[in-house]
Fold this sequence. Notes:
Layout: H1 2-19, E1 27-28, H2 30-37, H3 44-52, E2 58-61, E3 66-70, H4 71-84
Antiparallel strand pairs: 1-3, 2-3
Amino acid sequence: MKDMTWDVIEAIVKRIKREHNITYDKWIAPNDAMKYLGLDNYTRDELRAYCDTNKINYTVIEHNGIVLYDMDSILDFLKISSAGHG
């Protein structure tokens, strides 16, 4: 029953994304944020530094402590960073 519920939820999310032309998730997990930013476990502290200096936005889901990163701010940061190196 639980798997069937998640299948329905995932189908609804896919449909909403398709109907509203959403091409990426607004909030992403730390590992995904690190991948987009080209960071690894050795440079993980840079992700925190980007957040501490307001270069990348994040949120903490209070009831379980999960940290999610704002994809729009990551894309903006990458755009600004690449413009500075161009």
